[in-house]
From TrEMBL:
This is protein-tyrosine-phosphatase. Residues 28-103 form the Tyrosine specific protein phosphatases domain. PANTHER family: PROTEIN-TYROSINE-PHOSPHATASE, RECEPTOR-TYPE TYROSINE-PROTEIN PHOSPHATASE. Keywords: Hydrolase, Protein phosphatase. Coiled coil: none annotated. Residues 1-112 form the Tyrosine-protein phosphatase domain. It comes from Loxia curvirostra (Red crossbill). InterPro entries: Prot-tyrosine_phosphatase-like (IPR029021), Protein-Tyr_Phosphatase (IPR050348), PTP_cat (IPR000242), Tyr_Pase_AS (IPR016130), Tyr_Pase_cat (IPR003595), Tyr_Pase_dom (IPR000387). Its EC number is 3.1.3.48.
């Protein structure tokens, strides 16, 4: 038609595992989505990325903040979640809508910045195993060692909290089950 803009191709990524007002059960899945979207943008930079959930504030704000903060963390070696969300809210009210979403940002950033991308496409797994075997026979396990060290660092953050208060003699009668004690607060 005369006067109409050229047709545009739109590629949609629809993430179904994120409840409204909630957070995904697994940070890795959301990190994977961010990675796929950014990879696609690099492959075919045809225009802006549009992010939208039902209301356009909670999940949308969390996704945008996560993408921005991952890039910030990699580039600057630090993140500022508070100011990022504050700036988003200056553009649109209530971005990152719930306390749970705000807290989840930290959890996803922890995994994303500490462990990085560890996903392997199915078609690449055989060549990865071969290269790991080659590294093992040569005495150099750089890929495997790097991932395992990241896993160790990540796991250390989730060690059992000390239960000193619950273990004190005056508090022992209050403990209903000896194997389930509250951590120190």
């Amino acid at each position: 038609q005369a006067g109409c803009a050229l047709p545009r191709a739109v590629e949609q990524f629809h993430y179904l595992l994120w409840p409204d007002h909630g957070v995904p059960r697994n940070p890795s899945q959301l990190l994977g989505l961010v990675e796929v979207v950014n990879k696609r943008v690099l492959e075919a930079p045809a225009g802006p990325v549009l992010v939208h959930c039902s209301a356009g504030i909670g999940r949308t704000g969390t996704f945008i903040a996560l993408d921005f903060l991952l890039k910030m963390g990699k580039a600057e070696g630090k993140v500022d979640v508070f100011h990022c969300v504050q700036q988003l809210r200056e553009q649109r009210v209530s971005m990152v809508q719930t306390k749970e979403q705000y807290s989840f940002l930290y959890e996803v950033l922890l995994e994303g910045l500490l462990c990085g991308s560890t996903g392997v496409p199915v078609e690449s797994i055989a060549s990865l195993v071969r290269s790991l075997r080659d590294e093992e026979t040569s005495g150099c396990n750089s890929i495997l060692e790097k991932e395992f060290k990241a896993l160790q660092r990540f796991s250390e953050l989730f060690q059992l909290l000390p239960c000193r208060e619950a273990e004190k003699p005056r508090n022992q009668p209050k403990n209903r089950k000896p194997g389930i004690l509250p951590g120190n607060t």
